[in-house]
Design brief:
With about 100 residues, this protein is mainly β. It has a single domain, classed as Elongation Factor Tu (Ef-tu), domain 3. Helices cover about 10% and strands about 60% of the residues. The protein has a 6-stranded antiparallel β-barrel with strand order 1-2-3-6-5-4. The protein is elongated and about 45 Å long. The chain starts with a strand and ends with a strand. It holds the Pfam family DUF3219. InterPro entries: DUF3219, YkvR-like_sf. This is DUF3219 domain-containing protein.
Amino acid sequence: MKIILNDLTIDAVHFDKEKVIKQGKELQKVKIDFKVTSDDYHDVTTLLYENHFVVRVPEENMEFPATIHNYFTSITNLYEEGAVGDFRLELIEKG
């Protein structure tokens, strides 16, 4: 499944969506598992540090502004050529 975060397209290995209640508001929350190669590492981490996203999921007809709710990676150094890391990103709609 293709997920677009701002202008970066991610090929999700796993995608899950849910509605959550935060301060009385119903917000969208998505969980995305994806692979990051050493070639893409800089672009992905630079985007994540911004922590301001427009999430677009064309297959689900979803689009919303979001911030990081939770984040995990299996590897912290993807500067070695050919390295691949597993990333899990949970984004929640800005309320």
